[in-house]
Amino acid sequence: MAITDAIVQYRRFLKRRNCSIHTVKNYMHTLRQFVLWVNVPIEQVIGKEILRYIDHLRARRLQPKTINCHLDSIRGFYNYLIHEEGVKMQNPVKRNYNLRLAKPLPKYLRDEEIVQFFAQIKSSRDRAIFTLMLRCGLRVEEVAKLTLRGVDLPRAQLFICEGKGNKDRIVYLSSDALKVLSTYLEKRPSSRIQRVFLVEKGVYKDQPLSVRGIQKRMEYYARKAGLNVSCHQLRHTMATQLLNADADLVVIQDLLGHSQIRTTQRYCKVSNLKVQRDYYKAIDTVMQRHGLWPTKSLT
After folding, report:
1. Could you tell me which residues come within 8 angstroms of residue 231 by beta carbon, excluding any fewer than 6 positions away?
2. Superfamily (CATH) of domain 111-267
3. CA-based diameter of the chain, in Å?
4. Which residue in 62, 150, 151, 273 has the most C-beta neighbors within 10 A?
5. Please, where are the H alpha helices in 60-195?
6. Catalytic residue among 11, 232, 274, 277
7. Which residue of the set 125, 127, 235, 236 is catalytic?
8. pLDDT digits (tens, 9 = 90+) for 9-51
9. In the chain, what are the domain boundaries?
10. 139 catalytic residue (yes or no)
11. Which pTM does this prediction carry?
12. In terms of Cα–Cα distance, which of 233, 231, 226, 240 is closest to 126?
C-alpha cells in the first residue's frame, strides 16, 4: 500500500472510531511532518530513526508535551498498519521513548482573587460565561458549544453534549450561576442559532461566540483585574473549593468529566484546608488514645 493511501485509510479509521475533528486534524498534521522528514520507506523505520526524529523535534525547541503528541500520532499510525493492514513489522515507537513531563499542581484562585476578577465584569453574557466555568467546572470548549436545548433552568442543570473525549454529562447550576444565566438569557437576542453565547458586536454579531473569543474576554478582564488567570483556572478553582468542602472525589470526577480518578486526585495536593482538617482530626484521635492532650483543631 502506498504511503498516501495508508494515511487516507488511517484517517478514515480514526473517523470510524469517532475521534473528534480536532484529534483527527492533529494526528494528520503531526504524521504528515514525520513522513516528510523520514528518508526511508515508512515500513523500514526502526527505533533509531524515531530517536533521531525526537532529536529533530527538540532542536526545533518544541515542548516535551508537544513532542509526546507527535510520538502518540506516529505510534498510532504504526499500530494501525500492523493490526488493521497486516503489515509485518514491529512498532518502532516504543513507549519508553516518550519524554518525561513535569507535573505542576493545578492553579486556582483564592477567594479574594475571585471577587477581584468578577468585579471587572459588567456584561451579563460574560458574567454568565465565567460563572459557569467557576460553579459548574466547564471547559472553555464546553461553554462555547453549550446549546439552548442543553439548558434546563427549572431543574437547574445543564446537559454537556460531547465534552472532552466525546462524553456527555450533566452538571448542576448553583443559585448564583442560575441567576446570572437566567439574566443573560432574558437579554439574549432572539435567534435561530442554538448556541447559548453569541457575539454582541462587529461583523460577526449574533454569530456563535468562539473558543478564542471567550479566551480573549478572559485575557481582557484578567488585565483589568491585574491577575494572571486563565479559563481553565476557574475550573480548577471549582474542583478545589468542592474538595475543601469535603465533596467526595468520585463526585468531583463526575462533575468535571474526568475519565480517570487519578486526574481528580491531583487536586488533593493543593486542597490544603482539607488536608489540615483531616490531619488535626486524626492526630487528636491518636493523642487521646495515648492519653496525651489533643491538639487545637481547626474550625
Report:
1. 130, 133, 139, 140, 214, 215, 218
2. Intergrase catalytic core (1.10.443.10)
3. 78
4. 150
5. 64-83, 111-118, 124-136, 140-145, 175-187
6. 232
7. 235
8. 999 999 888 887 888 999 999 999 999 999 988 889 999 999 9
9. 3-97, 111-267
10. yes
11. 0.66
12. 231
